[in-house]
Amino acid sequence: MKMRSSRPSFFGVALGVLIVACGGHTPPPYDNPPVLANRDDIEAAMRAVGAGLEARVVLFLRIDASGQVQSVRVGRSSGSVELDDAAMWIGRQMRFEPARSEGKAVPALVEIPVTFDVVKQVVRSARLRNSEEIAARIVREHGDVRGKARFRILVGTEGWVIDRQDRRPFSEAAQAAARKLIDDVMFTPAYRGDRAIVSWVMLIFEFAGPETRVYIDAPGA
User: Fold this and answer.
1) Which listed site, 7, 90, 138, 149, has its alpha carbon 20 to 30 Å from 110?
2) Pick from 171, 163, 174: which is nearest to 201 by CA?
3) Is omega for the bond preceding 169 within 30 degrees of 0, making it cis?
4) How many CB atoms lie within 10 A of CB 198?
5) First to last CA, the chain
6) Domains of the chain and CATH, by start
């Protein structure tokens, strides 16, 4: 599978698919490899997540007999945690027609290169819309908690949180309290030109009594 156009593209998962060893277990042999079933969705996701990025990441995907992706790991890194995470998120969105052996659907382990190669455009970062409201809730509901909570957030095109990852260092108490609030945090999405795009931000909850605040530390961090 190779992508060489000026925008992200996705051609033939069956091409370049390799059986790989994973955890000492080799999947059953198959006559026909898995085939990507949601190509249009993946191309759209790559255009959104890959805005302004140039990288190649090799992923190892474990696909079950129903065509669902069971696990994703990086086989060859781009050298950037941000780009690797973007590629892994893409891998988790993939859905397949399963591999088949003698007509029977079987699980498969595949190696898939994901290449971002897009035209760079000015990107406006995502911004918080209700930080003061969330900070007020922290003071009201968690006034005795102190410390920072850190999350890497994937912000959707409508400004909602669609994925999150805990980031250290953080206060266990603050992180636990912030998890109860994070789904209520709203953003203005990032934009590439005049189009809203999916983007990563580093979101900080600083539990400090009356000085509590919620802010974006570094877009895409």
Assistant:
1) 7
2) 163
3) yes
4) 22
5) 29
6) 1-120 (3.30.2420.10), 123-219 (3.30.2420)
Query: Of 77, 46, 37, which Cα lies nearest the Cα of 60?
Result: 77
Q: What is the dihedral of CA 168, 170, 172, 178, to 10 degrees?
A: -100
> Which pair of structure tokens corresponds to residue 78?
């781009």
39, two tokens: 């190509």
- Among residues 18, 34, 35, 23, the alpha carbon closest in space to that of 107 is found at 34
pTM of the model: 0.53
For the stretch 20-40, pLDDT in tens is: 434 445 555 677 888 888 888
pLDDT of 85-106, one tens digit each? 888 888 999 999 998 888 899 9
Residue located via tokens 């060893």: 21
Distances (CA, A) of 221 to 54, 71, 92, 159, 204: 16, 24, 20, 18, 12
60, pLDDT greater than 80: yes
Length of the chain: 221
Please, what is the Cα angle at 5 between 82 and 72, to 5 degrees? 40
How, if at all, do strands 187-188 and 190-192 pair? unpaired
- Dig out the tokens for 181 from the structure: 């609030």
